[in-house]
Write a structure and sequence with these properties.
14 strands, single chain, 334 residues, 7-stranded parallel β-sheet, 4-stranded mixed β-sheet, globular, alpha/beta
């Protein structure tokens, strides 16, 4: 197994190598209403939440971008958002972040920016309220997004497809992105959705969780390690992947390295000391995995570091990020 010093040295390179990840996907605004509960409503058997704080956070591809930025990587973000309050809030928040280029984000009257509002009481999520309309491309916007993808392929080190199923990553855009990246010779990383599973062919790596891996292959999910390894082999073969990382929540993740066409399987146990909130952990894995790979060209080493990062964010409330100092400390003390 790769030693700790080697991992720490890799993390040190995150903000020194000047690598840029082009993130393509669905931007989501996460809202949090935080309060306390002292009584039940007389109108219905539900708790009354007395609001003590409200905040906004990045969701979807915005959170992926923020994760890359927080460890020193550069991001170019391609997406489509609405000309609405939520869209303006996301752009304002992104503008304040280091190393995130938002000039490739398209604003349009034809789109409503996705919002997810979580009500938190006594450190527990009480309910989530979503506002979303799945995006459908107009011919002019589709053409523009393709032009941006083609241009970005020549200016960035890797593509990262952050698919939240909100319509930005349509089947056509997914396949165009992968073909464009393969043509110019840059890696492609995918955080998948079940409905697009068969479109993620010939990518560098994909990071489904257990449910996405099995259901994407029209199989019943299983947490048995042998079943996961069998399914991973099937996915690698069907989609012709160079690698695959199946995330397994409290059980860590399993890496399928197919770069040499002699498949190597490695299971990495979780590094989480305490699981507080798994929201956004998948974003962290794909973010650190992709940035690590463009620096090291080593999928196992990158996955190990991504696993440490996931172990840190699940101990925080809501969508969260890690810093290089937190990563190095976690590796050192493991």
């Amino acid at each position: 197994m790769i030693n700790k010093l080697e991992l720490i040295k890799t993390v040190d390179l995150f903000n020194k190598k000047n690598k840029t990840v082009c993130v393509i996907g669905d931007l989501i605004l996460d809202r949090y209403i935080i309060g306390k509960v002292n009584r039940i409503s007389p109108e219905a058997p539900v708790p009354i939440v007395e609001v003590v704080d409200e905040k906004q956070a990045f969701g979807g591809a915005a959170n992926v971008s923020n994760n890359i930025s927080s460890v020193g990587g550069k991001v170019r973000l391609i997406s489509v958002i609405g000309k609405d309050q939520a869209g303006r809030e996301i752009l304002s928040m992104l503008e304040k972040k280091d190393n995130i280029d938002i000039s490739y984000i398209i604003e349009t009257e034809n789109q409503k920016t996705t919002e997810k509002t979580r009500i938190i009481a006594e450190h527990q999520q009480v309910i989530r309220v979503d506002k979303e309309i799945k995006y459908r491309y107009t011919p002019s916007i589709l053409k523009k997004v393709k032009e941006l993808i083609k241009k970005s392929a020549k200016e960035t080190d890797t593509f990262l497809l952050s698919d939240y199923g909100k319509g930005i990553l349509s089947k056509e855009i997914i396949e165009y992105s992968i073909n464009t990246a393969n043509r110019v010779g840059i890696p492609v990383f995918v955080d998948p959705k079940i409905q697009h599973f068969s479109s993620y062919k010939r990518v560098t790596s994909m990071t489904p969780n257990i449910n996405e891996a099995f259901l994407g292959m029209k199989a019943i999910p299983s947490k048995i390690q042998r079943d996961i390894e069998i399914m991973g082999k099937k996915i690698i073969k069907k989609l012709n992947l160079k690698s695959l990382v199946i995330t397994q929540s409290e059980n860590g993740l399993t890496v399928f390295d197919n770069f040499t066409k002699k498949l190597k399987i490695s299971h990495i146990p979780t590094k989480a000391k305490e699981v507080f909130d798994v929201t956004g952990a998948g974003d962290t894995v794909i973010s650190i995995l992709s940035l690590g790979y463009v620096i090291t060209k080593d999928i196992l080493k990158s996955a190990i570091i991504a696993n440490y990062a996931a172990g840190i964010v699940v101990s925080k409330l809501g969508t969260a990020t890690v810093t290089t100092d937190e990563l190095k400390e976690a590796i050192k003390n493991s």
